[in-house]
Write a structure and sequence with these properties.
Blueprint (H helix, E strand, L loop, with lengths): L16 H41 L7 E2 L2 E2 L2 H51 L2 H6 L2 H11 L1 H9 L2 H20 L1 H48 L1 H6 L3 H53 L5 H41 L8 H5 L11 E9 L8 E9 L4 E4 L6 H8 L7 E6 L2 E2 L5 H7 E4 L10 H5 L4 E2 L3 E2 L5 E2 L6 E2 L9 H15 L2 H10 L8 H20 L6 E3 L11 H6 L1 E3 L13 H9 L3 H19 L7 H5 L13 H4 L11 H11 L4 H4 L6 H17 L2 H4 L2 E3 L11 H6 L1 E3 L6 H15 L3 H9 L12 H14 L4 E4 L8 H14 L3 E3 L5 H7 L2 E6 L2 E6 L1 H4 L5 H10 L1
Parallel strand pairs: 5-18, 5-19, 8-17, 17-18
Antiparallel strand pairs: 1-2, 3-4, 3-6, 6-7, 9-12, 10-11, 13-16, 14-15, 19-20
Helix pairs in contact: 1-2, 1-6, 1-10, 2-5, 4-7, 5-10, 6-7, 6-10, 7-9, 7-10, 9-10, 15-30, 16-29, 17-28, 20-23
């Protein structure tokens, strides 16, 4: 096997921020400098114009003829004013163009910097990621580098622009009055020497402030992660004391920074006022003595006024430069850990990806942790890739670390890991990522659908070079490599996914997710008709089996006790999931109809009764009590909203309540589910009035509102409702013993009879898993991770204690499938004797970082073997 050619050269972040700027933006920086140079002559001319205008007012230097035209004093004045206006506009235009260019340049470079830092995280060795917390890395990439964008845009253009403006103004001063010009120049070196010296201490304090705030963020992250231990150990006082100490340190640093910065500002302002004093005294004497014209003095004073702004900008820029230099260097320092993974190997695009077909060999491999522990020392091992090997040992044996080495998630301190004679750690990650499947003990999923997570390792992302050196990975979500899954079409891929889901025991979970999901009618128009046919069959089946009372069907002419009051009024599902029925109270047309029908007062009184009941029952319950899940209408932190019921007497008319309180109580009443909450607040008369209001809402609400609702219709499929709701066309009755399991069994039978399994699995695969897979259980996340690794058909499957969460029958079933479809599957975990005998061709036993024995199960299954002792230790 040969090492594929890398398509992207390796790069390192420059240590200096100016090196970073010039590396990626020197062309645009030159463009900004060119525009700045063009603007300076225009600025000099704008300084000269006021003097000419003053002379024109006094009748001096009148040309008489201008461009062949006779011109008087007033005409000459208008011409000069017109030229002055043109110069002002031209100056403003240059400023606008330069500022826009700087802004875009800064944002592009900030994007580049964040990209590089994020890529650095992807290149961190695992040991470094265990040492550095996310609480440190996240603010560095987001908040800490934010000011660098503005500085990068200004890095060359601002000192050139403001410095050029300053020199142009000084040149004008010297030309007009050398003595006054020299007076203005004398102060500048003093400021240029003294103020930077004073600023250095401020820079050191700023650096210390950044480090202290970063440690504060880390402490907050530790507190959030260890809140259970803090409460269990009564550690609140200790945490508050340590946090207060850190806050005090930050206060001291920031106060010292303010004190020094304001002194620098005071000194700078004082020095800036000395030249005007000299101008008015010496310049006035020169005018009186007729050594200097009044117009020249006015021009000098105006020019010096312009001189202050660029000089202040340069001093501010110096401070910003030092702050940015410190921020950049500190951030880069945190993103330069030892053992950083090779960028070129990560981004390489090999021309071909040959299979691993021979052996995986470890030669003298040693591995140590950053703490100094040596989990593996001198491992020599040859693993045939066409065999199934179990790697066993206790928690301190080094089996977990060996699994990391086999999956290329760690690199050995010494020795080699060879696959087909090639160093595994010198291959592009595209090759090892495609040919090796790795699953650890705790799986992590990513936000997106279940399908996105399953095919994540099948997607191919083309890399192209974009402007300013940024790498572009395309925006189409990545192409799914069907060949990698061993299929030729999307249909075949769906069948392959179903096969893998069954292999890991996840098919039933996906079916349940599909029942709660929605169907895309545009993508699956025929599926809706099949579900409608299944709805009728299910209704008949429930009646025939005596289960008809377990589901209260949707009937437009009847109140449904298993729907909320708001759902009864709406009698449909909003197309916008962010618009639940209880938010109907916020709609003016809805409130107008309820007022007209005389329902508002009844509903507010119901809301008031619910509020009183909720506060009486739940106000004193501890957070997380299961009563909130079972009975409460609102979360515990929302109970304060219901205080409106105490601010007015129970007998008070709803119209006397504040508008906000009325809406809160009205919305609360819309959450009432009569069969579930059993509060006895709805009688037959009110039920009939609510059904009448349902019809009125349907007839009178604006078309724009109605177009956002999918109404319950026995002859139509509701795209806004879940597939289960469409199948049942009703709700499972609350409070009926075993209603849920019995209905689930009936629905499961229907799915098989009506051949809906494929539709439901497709819908389940589109279910979002949430951030880090939070919507799935730990067991489901682990199964998804195993399925993801199996789906890409790796040449080597490393299960690093990944199947421990499966029960014994599920493990045996999975290993049986692996033996049939994935030669070379490996498991780094302990197994029962039966599983070892049937599931693996070879067994390797580790103890304290050494291989103590290896062979097949028959050879090692003897009373004095390490394998036997390991099994006995696990059984005890």
């Amino acid at each position: 096997m040969t090492e594929p050619r890398s398509g992207t050269p390796g790069t390192a972040l420059p240590r200096s921020i100016y090196r970073f700027i010039l590396r990626w933006s020197w062309r645009r920086q030159l463009l900004a400098l060119g525009l700045t140079a063009l603007s300076l002559p225009v600025y000099y001319a704008s300084l000269q114009l006021p003097k000419m205008i003053v002379n024109a007012l006094s009748g001096k230097d009148m040309p008489g003829v201008l461009f062949g035209w006779q011109i008087n004093q007033l005409g000459y004045l208008w011409v000069l004013c017109g030229v002055f206006l043109a110069l002002v506009l031209l100056n403003a235009g240059f400023g606008y163009a330069i500022n826009v260019l700087k802004g875009r340049l800064g944002e592009r470079m900030l994007r580049r910097l964040r990209f590089e830092l994020y890529h650095r995280i992807l290149r961190f060795p695992l040991g470094e990621l265990r040492r550095v917390s996310a609480g440190e890395l996240i603010p560095m990439i987001t908040a800490e580098v934010e000011p660098l964008g503005g500085f990068i845009g200004d890095a060359l253009a601002l000192p050139a622009q403001q410095g050029g403006t300053l020199l142009t103004a000084l040149l004008f001063l010297i030309v007009q009055a050398p003595v006054l010009g020299l007076a203005a120049v004398v102060v500048l070196p003093i400021q240029a020497i003294v103020i930077p010296r004073l600023q250095r201490r401020v820079n050191k304090l700023s650096k210390e402030r950044v480090r202290t705030i970063r440690s504060l963020s880390d402490r907050i992250g530790e507190t959030v992660g260890g809140i259970a231990e803090i409460h269990a150990d009564n550690g609140v006082r200790r945490q508050l004391a340590e946090f207060t100490d850190r806050l005090g340190r930050i206060y001291d640093i920031r106060f010292e920074i303010y004190r020094r910065k304001f002194f620098v500002k005071f000194l700078n302002n004082f020095l800036n006022q000395l030249p005007p004093l000299f101008f008015f005294s010496v310049g006035g004497w020169l005018v009186i003595r007729h050594h200097l014209s009044f117009a020249a003095l006015v021009a000098v004073v105006a020019a010096y006024k312009d001189l202050a702004a660029p000089w202040k900008s340069l001093l501010d820029f110096y401070q910003a430069k030092e702050d940015s230099r410190i921020k950049y260097e500190q951030v880069i320092e945190q993103f330069q850990p030892p053992g950083l993974l090779d960028r070129a190997l990560q981004l390489a695009v090999p021309e071909s990806l040959p299979h691993f077909t021979g052996t995986l060999e470890l030669r003298g491999v040693a591995f140590d942790e950053p703490s100094g522990l040596v989990p593996l020392d001198g491992i020599d091992l040859v693993l045939p890739l066409d065999r199934h090997t179990a790697i066993l040992g206790d928690a301190a044996s080094g089996k977990t670390e060996l699994g990391l080495l086999l999956g290329r998630l760690a690199q050995p301190r010494s020795g080699l890991v060879l696959v087909d004679g090639v160093d595994l750690n010198r291959l592009p990650y595209a090759a090892t990522g495609r040919r090796i499947g790795y699953v650890g003990a705790a799986a992590t999923l990513f936000a997106g659908s279940l399908y996105d997570n399953l095919v994540a390792e099948l997607r191919r992302w083309p890399i192209t070079d974009a402007e300013d050196g940024r790498l572009s990975f395309g925006r189409d979500g990545g192409r799914v490599d069907l060949a990698a899954a061993g299929v030729a079409s999307e249909t075949a891929l769906g069948a392959r996914i179903r096969q893998v889901l069954a292999m890991v025991g996840l098919e039933t979970d996906v079916l349940r997710l599909g029942l709660q999901g929605r169907l895309d009618l545009r993508a699956e128009p025929a599926a809706a008709a099949r579900i409608l046919a299944a709805r009728a069959a299910l209704g008949r089946s429930l009646v025939e089996r005596g289960l008809g009372t377990l589901v209260e069907r949707f009937d437009p002419s009847r109140f449904n006790a298993n729907l909320s009051l708001g759902e009864n009024l709406l009698f449909g599902t909003p197309l916008d999931s962010a618009m639940p029925p209880e938010r109907l109270a916020a709609s003016r047309p809805v409130r107008h109809i309820l007022d007209r029908l005389g329902l508002t007062g009844d509903l507010v009184r119901i809301g008031r009764s619910i509020a009183a009941t909720m506060i009486e029952i739940f106000a004193d319950l501890p957070p997380g009590h299961d009563y909130f899940e079972r009975f409460a209408f609102i979360a515990q932190d929302e109970l304060r909203i219901t205080g409106a019921c105490w601010r007015a007497p129970t007998s008070a008319a709803p119209t006397r309540l504040a508008g906000r309180d009325r809406l809160a109580l009205l919305g609360l009443s819309f959450r009432l589910v009569e069969a579930r909450h059993r509060l006895g607040l709805i009688d037959d008369a009110l039920r009939r009035r609510l059904v009448a209001a349902r019809r009125a809402l349907r007839e009178e609400l604006p078309a724009a509102f109605l177009n956002g609702i999918e109404f319950f219709d026995p002859d139509r499929y509701s795209a806004a409702a879940s597939i289960l709701d469409n199948l049942l066309f009703g709700r499972v009755a609350y409070g009926v013993p075993e209603a849920g399991p019995r209905i689930e069994a009936a629905v499961t039978e229907l799915i098989e009879a009506a051949d809906l399994r494929g539709i439901l699995i497709a819908a389940g695969l589109e279910s979002p898993v949430g951030s880090a897979g939070a919507r799935l259980t730990a067991l489901q996340r682990q199964k998804v991770a195993i399925a993801r690794a199996v789906l890409k058909r790796p040449d080597l499957l490393v299960l690093n204690q990944a199947t421990l969460v499966l029960d014994r029958p599920a493990r045996r079933k999975f290993l049986r499938h692996c033996n049939a479809s994935l030669p070379g599957a490996r498991s780094s975990r302990s197994c029962s004797g039966r599983s070892l005998r049937r599931g693996f061709d070879r067994i390797v036993v580790l103890d304290r970082g050494k291989i103590v024995e290896q062979g097949d199960f028959t050879a090692l299954d003897r009373p004095d073997s390490s394998l036997t002792m390991l099994k006995q230790a696990e059984a005890s």
